[in-house]
Write a structure and sequence with these properties.
With 249 residues, the chain is mainly β. The protein has one helix spanning 70-77; strands spanning 9-14, 19-21, 27-41, 48-65, 79-86, 89-98, 104-106, 120-127, 130-131, 138-141, 146-149, 160-167, 170-177, 183-191, 200-211, 226-232, 243-245. It folds into two domains: 9-27 and 47-80 and 177-245; 88-168, no CATH class.
């Protein structure tokens, strides 16, 4: 009986808090590299190999994910995912500094919130306490909190602009890069093959690292993908590096 297989399945990663499904993963490739120490006879004539010993083995798993969740983003940029909470409130005379026509400016940017506010209303733009006219001197994106200085309008280059606005109470996902070099944990592959016996793979100790590029835009329509290299490690002397389990019969 043949054992031809068309592989499919789901991948779960456990960072110590339980197994998390990584979402759709169109690519997952297991690779094995070995190094041997060769021995050559020096007794007579031509130097010939008379023995070899396997002395090193490296096992890796390359994963391609296209489920672009905040958790996968955080793994890819080596960061932390969180929910940012914005409190409601009125802001008066926030300075955007000296501006230039034809440029965009982020409202609400600060040391504690460098990416600025989202969801604002009741915006008033002033130069030297004089209110300017929307859609003549400037435009504003209320959802993203971005101000644009219209060329030829009444806000001259190098003018110091202040804004009054009201922040809405809201939340948003945010991923912030960190300094950790990799993510340690365990990984499980649960097979669901359209053809061939299902064999599940468990890796008790792995180091997950991002690799490759994340295409933010392109000339042709295509799905974004994130790449990860998984180094398969030996957890301890009594635990194997890889377990491949068939289904109960």
């Amino acid at each position: 009986m043949s054992n031809y297989t068309i592989p499919k399945g789901k991948i779960y990663f456990n960072d110590g808090t339980g197994e998390e499904y990584l979402g759709n993963t169109p690519g997952a490739e297991l690779s094995v590299e070995t190094n041997s120490l060769d021995h050559y006879s020096a007794e007579s004539g031509i130097r010939e190999k008379d023995d070899t010993a396997l002395v090193e083995i490296n096992r890796k798993l390359a994963i391609t994910a296209d489920d672009i969740t905040v958790r996968n983003w955080s793994r890819f940029i080596i960061g932390n995912a969180s929910t940012l909470t914005q409190a409601s409130g009125a802001v008066v005379a926030e300075s955007l500094g000296a501006v230039k026509q034809g440029r965009y400016y982020q409202i609400g940017a600060s040391a504690g919130n460098p990416s600025g506010v989202r969801g604002i209303s009741a915006v008033t733009v002033k130069v030297a306490a004089v209110a300017k006219t929307e859609n003549v001197d400037y435009t504003v994106d209320l959802i993203l909190g971005r101000l644009y200085i219209i060329p030829g309008g009444g806000i001259a280059d190098a003018s110091v602009v202040t804004v009054d606005y009201t922040k809405a109470a809201n939340t948003r996902d945010q991923v912030i890069s960190a300094s950790a070099a990799s993510v340690a944990g365990a990984l499980r592959f649960v097979a669901d093959n359209p053809k061939g016996a299902n064999r599940d793979i468990f890796l008790p100790s792995v180091s997950l690292k991002p690799t490759g590029t994340a295409k933010l835009k392109g000339e042709q329509a295509e799905y974004m993908q994130l790449g990860f290299d998984v180094e398969i490690l030996k957890k301890d002397l009594t635990t194997a590096a890889i377990y491949i389990d068939g289904r109960p019969v």
